[in-house]
Specification:
The chain is mainly α and about 50 residues long. The protein has helices at about 5-10, 20-45. Helices cover about 65% and strands about 0% of the residues. The longest helix is centred in the middle third of the chain and has 26 residues, at about 20-45.
Amino acid sequence: MGCGRSLGEILEWHSADAEARTEMLDRARDRRAQRGQRLTRASGGSGAV
């Protein structure tokens, strides 16, 4: 379901330093996890892959 980065983060990626990229990836990971939890609850699944 995508990388999890926002459009702004994608546009900023090439000019970002290593620290900023790490922060973007951390936020993206959190977004993907939240999205997975919402999808699991909506489908009634256990979330196991």
